[in-house]
């Protein structure tokens, strides 16, 4: 692999984006969490600390929230997706939704080595919900 191309890549005439190349060489990262029985203001979250010498680029995020009880299924399922700095509480990104939402970031969120993040789905309904959050990107 001295040419810099993966052994399984054929004609070598393609130009790759950084994200595509990261996926080809196995540098993609994915985080996900699920939570059951979330009351108003509760969240399901997954944390990550960017390792020394690396930069994490987040490219996608999705979040959901749905009623835990069938009787509440017809109600609004107001929720929020959020990426925040776990140490400072600063918010890098947030989006509201009814039942969920998602985004492919036009410009990846760049996080340097040592940064500790929480990726969250927050329940803002007045009934108990189950939620999920997933986030992906690449690390170089």
Brief sketch in words of this structure:
This protein is mostly beta strands. The chain contains 1 helix and 8 strands. It has one domain (18-139): Sandwich (Jelly Rolls).
Feature tags:
single chain, 140 residues, mainly beta, Jelly Rolls, 4-stranded antiparallel beta sheet, 8 strands, 56% strand, elongated
Describe this structure in words.
This protein has 140 residues and is mainly β. The chain has one domain: Jelly Rolls, CATH 2.60.120. 5% of the residues lie in helices and 56% in strands. The protein has one helix at 18-24, and strands at 28-38, 43-49, 55-67, 78-85, 91-98, 100-112, 116-123, 129-139. It has a 4-stranded antiparallel β-sheet. A 4-stranded antiparallel β-sheet has the order 2-7-4-5, with no helix packed on it. Strand 4 (78-85) and strand 5 form a beta hairpin. The mean pLDDT is 89.
Which helices and strands, and how do they pair?
Elements lengths: L17 H7 L3 E11 L4 E7 L5 E13 L10 E8 L5 E8 L1 E13 L3 E8 L5 E11 L1
Antiparallel strand pairs: 1-8, 2-7, 3-6, 3-8, 4-5, 4-7
